[in-house]
Amino acid sequence: MTNEDLLNVAQEFGSPVYVYDAAKIESQYKRLTNAFSNVKQLRINYAVKALSNISILKLLNSLGSCLDTVSIQEVKLGLLAGFEPQHIIYTPNGVSLEEIEEVAHLGVQINIDNLSVLEQFGSRHPEIPVCIRINPHVMAGGNSNISVGHIDSKFGISIHQIPHLLRIVENTNMHVNGIHMHTGSDILDIEVFLYAAEILFETAAHFKNLDFIDFGSGFKVPYKPGDIETNIEELGEKLSARFNEFCASYGKDLTLAFEPGKFLVSEAGSFLAKVNVVKQTTSTVFAGIDSGFNHLIRPMFYNSYHHIENISNPEGRERFYSVVGYICETDTFANNRRISEINEGDILRFKNAGAYCFSMASNYNSRFRPAEILWYNGKAHLIRERETFEDLTRNQVALDFSSSEKKSNKKRKEDAVTA
């Protein structure tokens, strides 16, 4: 997509607006599958939570992807998008046993990360195969909020609890068909990932009837020009060789699985917002846009960096701006960022807006969530309409206080007369 394409999208569909490049999603998917082409059986489970628009799910389904889900609602979205139940894995955390059972009855692969739930589920449904999520106690990830494999994490069953885990499996006679881990997001050092993989291999050796080993994901993408990223090709070469070696010793060709979300859709996404005001203070020039952390919370929640370009004036002289939103609290997207000179009415492009952007958007301040556009085969396709006031009030139930208010007013008048 060119800047002109994006400006045309903003003009046609208004701002703010999310735009996703289908070609980038496809190229990222192919890059990942090519990196692991040396394994006999590879399964890519797209992490729905990153971007759950049904058209995005349909696109990934057409590429051959499977799904990683964390809620029954995501499971149902996947089924609605045309995925077969056996092509969906469900990895919840802290949900009720009833929800897990409901998902299991849909024919979806269950992944359990809690000893208590594992024992309950295994006792009631020993015939249903389950995957087990292990916590390898390996710290990985670019932010404490996205590092999920360390010793204090709420996710996964500790490797130190393997003896207890094995007793539960033996006592319930349940069928464990997969082993899983996820260390965190934005992994830079593939050696750390490979170290965690060795822990997973060691754990997998305890189970004799596995079908797959799921290594999660967390691959880092570049957020700015010249930024570092996970070397997928090197990881693919090293992990594939080690995985094939493990399969040979295990005596069976297992499936190697990953659960990429950000890696597949982050760079495909652009968030376009219009500059409402340019405000000069004693020390700062603010560019205030027609959006806020209700639409793009990652900079505030994760301290994440989104590269910002002024696509209305891409060749302009660069100046320093603090880009801020219209929310009633501080919502700063960038401090003292070098951006081509900004004028009111210009369109700013936030890059890497495909993952955890719309999916984490809200109606805070009673603002509408933006439209979503898929750029596919050289054309802009509307895949989610901009919300309206009717959307905002659709599920609200307004009580009628008029009769009680009249009674209250009458009582106050009577009291006043008596006084």
From TrEMBL:
Annotated residues for binding of substrate: R298, Y302, E329, Y356
UniProt xrefs under PROSITE patterns: ODR_DC_2_1 (PS00878)
Cofactor dependency: pyridoxal 5'-phosphate
Reaction catalyzed: meso-2,6-diaminopimelate + H(+) = L-lysine + CO2
Pfam families named among the record's database cross-references: Orn_Arg_deC_N, Orn_DAP_Arg_deC
GO BP: any one term: lysine biosynthetic process via diaminopimelate
Domain Orn/DAP/Arg decarboxylase 2 C-terminal: 18-354
Key words, A-Z: Amino-acid biosynthesis, Decarboxylase, Lyase, Lysine biosynthesis, Pyridoxal phosphate
One annotated GO molecular function: pyridoxal phosphate binding
Listed Gene3D superfamilies: Alanine racemase, Lyase, Ornithine Decarboxylase, Chain A, domain 1
Class of the enzyme per the UniProt entry, highest EC level: lyase
Catalytic site positions: C328 (proton donor)
EC number: 4.1.1.20
N6-(pyridoxal phosphate)lysine found at: K49
Coiled-coil region(s): none
InterPro entries xref list: Ala_racemase/Decarboxylase_C (IPR009006), DAP_deCOOHase_LysA (IPR002986), De-COase2_C (IPR022643), De-COase2_N (IPR022644), De-COase2_pyr-phos_BS (IPR022653), Orn/DAP/Arg_de-COase (IPR000183), PLP-binding_barrel (IPR029066)
Keyword set includes Hydrolase: no
Domain Orn/DAP/Arg decarboxylase 2 N-terminal stretches: 23-266
Positions contributing to pyridoxal 5'-phosphate binding: G218, Y356
Cross-referenced CDD domains: PLPDE_III_DapDC (cd06828)
Role summary: Specifically catalyzes the decarboxylation of meso-diaminopimelate (meso-DAP) to L-lysine.
Family designation: Belongs to the Orn/Lys/Arg decarboxylase class-II family. LysA subfamily.
Subunit structure: Homodimer.
Protein name: Diaminopimelate decarboxylase
Organism: Pustulibacterium marinum
Name of the gene encoding the protein in the UniProt record: lysA
